[in-house]
Write a structure and sequence with these properties.
The protein has 122 residues and is an alpha/beta fold. It contains two helices and nine strands, in the order βαββββαββββ. The chain is 16% helix and 38% strand. The protein has a four-stranded mixed sheet. The chain has a three-stranded mixed sheet with strand order 1-6-7.
């Protein structure tokens, strides 16, 4: 490098999805209570609902060949290949209130949701 050149600062790594503290804590709880060894949670998309697609979460016993690996706040999330283009940029939260509890996906790619909130479209 020439004396007048400076090294560019490394850019922070892009995370396809991010987790809130509440979501990371809930994932840690789920992993701790699992009845088999798992590496993290796998997120996918299923075709269902009146808007077309629905989020799917399951235990991951191993990383699939084309899964996108996300490590955030000390937990591992794997994104299935066919879901990747639909959920990149999503923030995952865990919300509990008097009537329900569950993961909430704040997905900037969504163009709409069905009335019940079970499905979305992009």
């Amino acid at each position: 490098m020439a004396a007048t050149e400076t090294a560019a600062a490394p850019r922070p790594a892009f995370k396809p999805v991010t987790l809130t503290d509440a979501a990371a804590a809930r994932i840690r709880e789920l992993i701790a209570r699992a009845d088999r060894p798992i590496v993290g949670l796998r997120i996918g998309i299923k075709t269902k609902g009146c808007s077309g697609m629905s989020y799917d979460i399951d235990y991951a016993e191993e990383k699939g060949k084309f899964d996108e690996l996300v490590e955030d706040k000390g937990v591992t999330v794997l994104i299935e290949p066919k879901a990747q283009m639909y959920i990149f940029g999503t923030e995952i939260d865990w919300v509990e209130d008097k009537l329900q509890s569950g993961f909430v996906f704040r997905n900037p790619n969504e163009k709409g949701r069905c009335g019940c909130g079970e499905s979305f479209h992009v």
